[in-house]
Amino acid sequence: MELEKFMESYKPLMAIPIIITIIAVALLAFNGLNQGIDLKGGTIADLQLQKPIDQAQLDALISNGLGINEVDIKSIDASKATVEMGESVDVIQFSGVINGTATLQSFRTVGPVLSAAALTQIYWALAIAFLFMSITVFIIFRNLVPSLAVIMAALSNILIALGGMSLFGIPISMASVGALLLLIGYSVDTDILLTTRVLKRKEGTVTNRAIDAMKTGLTMSGTAIGAMAALYIVTVFFIPSAQTLADIAAVLIIGLVADILATWFLNLGILRWYLERGRR
């Protein structure tokens, strides 16, 4: 009964994801997104440490030896370290700087032309994914308002995820873009579940059908969030060298939480308004 009362007061709830989306857009506008080396260009080196050294000492060694400021120690433990540098570095010079402290296991440089092409491909991938998602939704429902509700919820979900990346300093990279594409699919999945249950089923009231869909959707979302949280904790505390996995898990956790708000507050609110308007 309490849940039914909660569902009936849907109009104030619609404002929550809208406000969070506006905040996310403001974060993107004023704070921007950090770019990974694979997008902005630079050098990535994997090192085998020959003696104990902490993160600050290794940072100072490389920065002073190469005369560069943009050095990021992505991971370090007793035997290995991964270093990212925000500009192209000569491998022979780099090997000389770390000589006696570490040996070079792998070395990769990404030039500005390749990074610009990668960023363009990312924009196209996201745009095409959204375009085909929108077309699919219109084909399924053949109704403007419910279809737009699904698209708006998915857009809100992605914008909140991007805003979270900006807030927590999660870099946009090929890996995190893959997580964003997964979020588009997951968001549409839960939105279609809701819209199908509410519009196409006839038994029970709209509120009862929405509650039935919510139980299924929240079970799916809760399971996914739990799995990603476990992946994030294991990666951060037990596999610190796998920073990419931690970034993917963090993006998915933010996006899955955003999907709960976008689906069950925004999309459901639009559907209830649409059905009530139709009855009038």
Q: Can you give a write-up of this model?
A:
The structure is a single chain. The chain is an alpha+beta fold and 280 residues long. It folds into two domains: 2-37 and 114-279, Multidrug efflux transporter AcrB transmembrane domain (Multidrug efflux transporter AcrB transmembrane fold); 42-110, Alpha-Beta Plaits, CATH 3.30.70.3400. Helix content is 73%, strand content 10%. It has ten helices and four strands; from the N terminus they run H-H-H-E-H-E-E-H-E-H-H-H-H-H. It has helices at 2-8, 10-30, 37-40, 55-66, 91-98, 112-141, 144-168, 174-200, 206-238, 243-279, and strands spanning 42-49, 71-76, 80-85, 102-110. A hairpin with a 3-residue loop joins strand 2 and strand 3. The protein is elongated. It starts with a helix and ends with a helix.
